[in-house]
Amino acid sequence: MGRRLSGKKIAKEIFARIKEDIELKKITPKLVILFIGNDPAAEYYVQNLEKKGLKVGIIVETLILPESIDQSSLLGKIDILNNNSEVNGIMLQKPLPAKLDESEIVMKINPQKDVDAFHPINMGNLVLDKEGFIPATPAAVLELLSYYEIETSGKHIVIVGRSDIVGKPMANLLLRKNKTGNATVTICHSRTKDLAYHTKQADILIAAIGKPQFIKPEMINENAIIIDVGVNQIEDAEKGYRYVGDVDYSGCFDKAAAITPVPGGIGTITTSVLLNNVLFAYNLQNKID
What we know:
The protein is of the alpha/beta class.
């Protein structure tokens, strides 16, 4: 397995499968991203999607909308995309301005175009173990677990973070009765008392709290596998800025049994899985097996 769990080879394999399928079927799936504001980590993710989409044959179009956009106008734009048969995937890039009602916006997206899998129908399918979209970041974690043959059955997996994007769907996926499931799952969050006590119990620790280098070496077990899904921009004396995860990578590297880097870890796989969801959406809408 190795101490450094890189996501690059995994992403490369997924991209290759997507490209092969698209070329074989001679199709052109399309994803439209609704981007509001100027969050640096979000911009980084969207730019990656645009570049990778171009390489595999998926059109990725980003609609940059002003922060001043109101609820009604945004819902109207989603309506147009829902009714456009050439658009197969709709992605609402987060975070959104606080004034917008995120739940109403998510409900507006056609579930068959909801490649982020946040619509209640898609989230319900996930919880009930039905076929459908899986949110890209949790799906990327599963891809990594499978690729490196990391045993989850009977293991204690601690997730730090309870978001709808990562924490909640991740927990449900790890509870499934399959190769990357059958785990005992603990979810920790901002109100958890004595967080380090819980994180040190983990056979596998998944950090998804959104705080740069939050998980320190004294918070982990010596034999733990650390999966870092965070992407945070911090200041850098030489480059101006750089991206780090939610884990103190250099501090935890020697203590952990294995650890994912940032960048080059889960984020790399997430991009490939999201584009795979777009291909899945195309097949779903066009009734292709």
